[in-house]
TrEMBL record:
PANTHER family: C-1-TETRAHYDROFOLATE SYNTHASE, CYTOPLASMIC, C-1-TETRAHYDROFOLATE SYNTHASE, CYTOPLASMIC-RELATED. Catalyzes the oxidation of 5,10-methylenetetrahydrofolate to 5,10-methenyltetrahydrofolate and then the hydrolysis of 5,10-methenyltetrahydrofolate to 10-formyltetrahydrofolate. Residues 139-281 form the Tetrahydrofolate dehydrogenase/cyclohydrolase NAD(P)-binding domain. It comes from Variovorax dokdonensis. The keyword Signal does not apply. This is Bifunctional protein FolD. Belongs to the tetrahydrofolate dehydrogenase/cyclohydrolase family. The gene is folD.
Length: 282
């Protein structure tokens, strides 16, 4: 079997077009959706990510501004800045780029963002809303993965979905979103005894570990849907995911590539969350 590709670039493009249309409609009513991004320090990867977030936003018609602070900014000053932005009605979404410098408590910083502006979906209130099915922002990466599964017309009801990885940002919210669609969900992690024995039972596998070749062809049920969240470099320095793409694509029914899979969808879902933040606050 040769798996069908789920094209994250194409799907992200269509989502951006939809966001652009809804943004234009809001602007016609005098509401300018506005994302404020805070970057503390000079981490090169964070500088690139935040620049992309601003350019994605502005290309879609959203307003986005990046505030950059030195790495020695005090936590108290950062919290004060977030509180000011919480109170600013012209700012609809607030994103503090992670990782933060070691002297800051990231969770405390995230909890200071108003949940109505928490477009990353990292606030404990957003996590609780996801767990209980209440309205709230969904973390962008698992939200994008769900859109990819939805895009192939796949019903998750009664299917066995296996998530590899238990992070607060991807693994846990991913499991909750799959559960909300009535999948039977298993979360695997570094202490899982026999990963292959579990993934071989899976109709859907989401690999979100951050390690190459976590999922190989012998670990996949023929026809399964395989979503690769990983972003790694191989020995030649080329971008690759957590999945052995070449081997697994011969067994799976559908597979997401890296690059061109989950990455562009994560970026697109931030735009959706920002737009929806503005819609809800207007
Ligand atoms: N650092 C890496 N990915 C992310 C993300 O999605 N949001 C934030 N705030 N920081 C990140």
């Amino acid at each position: 079997m040769t798996a069908q590709l789920i094209d994250g670039n194409a799907l992200a493009r269509s989502i951006r077009e939809e966001v652009a249309g809804r943004t234009a409609a809001l602007k016609a009513r005098g509401i300018h959706p506005h994302l404020r991004i805070i970057l503390v320090g000079e981490d090169p990867a964070s500088q690139v990510y935040t620049k992309h977030k601003v350019s994605d936003s502005t290309a879609t018609g959203l307003d986005a501004k990046l505030e950059v602070y030195p790495a020695d900014l005090s936590e108290a000053d950062l919290l004060a800045r977030i509180r000011t932005l919480n109170a600013d009605a012209s700012v609809h979404g607030i994103l503090v780029q992670l990782p933060l410098p070691a002297h800051m408590d990231s969770q405390k910083v995230i909890e200071t963002i108003s949940p109505v502006k928490d477009v990353d979906g990292f606030h404990v209130a957003s996590a609780g809303a996801l767990m209980t099915g209440a309205p709230g922002f969904r973390p962008c990466t698992p939200y994008g993965c769900m859109k990819m599964i939805e895009s192939i017309g796949y019903s998750l009801r009664g299917k066995h979905a296996v998530v590899i990885g238990r992070s607060n940002i991807v693994g846990k919210p991913m499991a909750m979103m799959l559960l909300a669609q009535s999948a039977t969900v298993t979360i695997c992690h570094s202490a899982t005894a026999d990963l292959g024995a579990i993934t071989r039972q899976a109709d859907v596998v989401v690999a979100a570990v951050g390690k190459r070749n976590v999922l190989t062809a012998d670990m996949v049920k023929p026809g399964a849907v395989v979503i690769d969240v990983g972003m790694n470099r191989n020995d030649e320095g080329k971008l690759c995911g957590d999945v052995d793409f070449e081997g697994v694509s011969k067994v799976a029914g559908w597979i997401t590539p890296v690059p061109g899979g989950v990455g562009p969808m994560t970026r697109a879902m931030l735009l959706v969350n920002t737009l929806e933040a503005a819609e809800r606050q207007s």
